[in-house]
Amino acid sequence: MTPLRGWRAAMPPVFFLAAGLTACATPIPPAVPMTRTATAMSHDPALRFDVPQLRRPRPGLITGGQPDASAWRGLKAQGVTTVINLRTAEELAGRDVAAEVAAAGMRYHAIPVAGAAGINGDNAAALRALLEDANGTVLVHCASGNRVGGLIALGAAQGGLPAEQALELGKAAGLTGAEAQVRQQLGLSAE
C-alpha cells in the first residue's frame, strides 16, 4: 500500500464529501461581459437597461459606465440598493444623477474622481468604506468603468488582498487604460 492510499484509507469518506462540497459551494461568478447595452441580470426580457461596460466582479457589486437615465428602475428591480458615482459634476453636464437615483428608490453617494489623477489611495479608501457599509447590491460607476476598476483594485489591496489578486479584481471591475498607473501604486511590475 502506498502512503497516499494509506492516508486516504485513514480519512472518513464524509471528509472528502464535505471538502468537495465546500470547494464548489461559493464560486465567484464571472464578470458580466462588456457590452454597450446589458440586459437585466435576471434574463427577464421585459427589464432592459442601458449601462455601458456592465460587470459583476463579485457578489453584491456591479460596476460599469454611466447608466442611461432610464436604467435606474431596472437596476433597482435587479436588487441594486445603492449607487456610487465616481464622475465629477463637470462630466455630468447638468444631469442630476442623485435625483434620478432617489426617484428610483436607491441610496446615492458621490466620490468625484477627476480622471487618472483621482485614482489614488484616498479615493480608494473612501470607496472601500462605502462598500463595506452598504446593505445589498451596490452599483459603482464612472464614465466607462476604468476609474471604478482602479479604485476597486487599490481598495482591495488596502484591505489585505495580495496585489496580483487585487489587480485581477480591478480588471474584472473595469480597469483598462489606467492599469499601468494602478500596477505602479500596487508595487507590481509593468507588463
In total, how many domains does the architecture comprise? 1
Largest sheet: number of strands, sense, barrel closure: 5 strands, mixed
**What's the CATH architecture name?**
Alpha-Beta Complex
Quantity of strands, as a count: 7
Order of helices and strands: HHEEEEHEHHEHEHHH
Separation of the first and last Cα atoms:
48 Å
- The fourth-level CATH homologous superfamily is Protein tyrosine phosphatase superfamily
Q: Any idea of the CATH class?
A: Alpha Beta
Q: Estimate the strand proportion.
A: 5-15%
What fold name stands as the CATH topology? Answer: Protein-Tyrosine Phosphatase, Chain A
> How does the overall form come out from the CA principal axes?
globular
Description:
With 191 residues, this protein is of the alpha/beta class. It has a single domain, classed as Protein tyrosine phosphatase superfamily (Protein-Tyrosine Phosphatase, Chain A, Alpha-Beta Complex), CATH 3.90.190.10. It is 43% helix and 14% strand. It has helices spanning 3-10, 13-25, 72-77, 89-92, 97-103, 121-133, 146-158, 163-172, 179-186; strands spanning 38-39, 48-49, 55-58, 61-64, 80-85, 107-110, 137-141. Strands 3-4-7-5-6 form a five-stranded mixed sheet, with helices on both faces. Strands 1-2 form a two-stranded antiparallel sheet. Strand 3 and strand 4 (61-64) form a beta hairpin. Helix 7 (146-158) packs antiparallel against helix 8, helix 7 runs parallel beside helix 9 (179-186) and helix 8 packs antiparallel against helix 9. The longest helix is centred in the first third of the chain and has 13 residues, at 13-25. The radius of gyration is 20 Å and the shape is globular. The termini are far apart. Mean pLDDT is 81; it is low at 1-47.
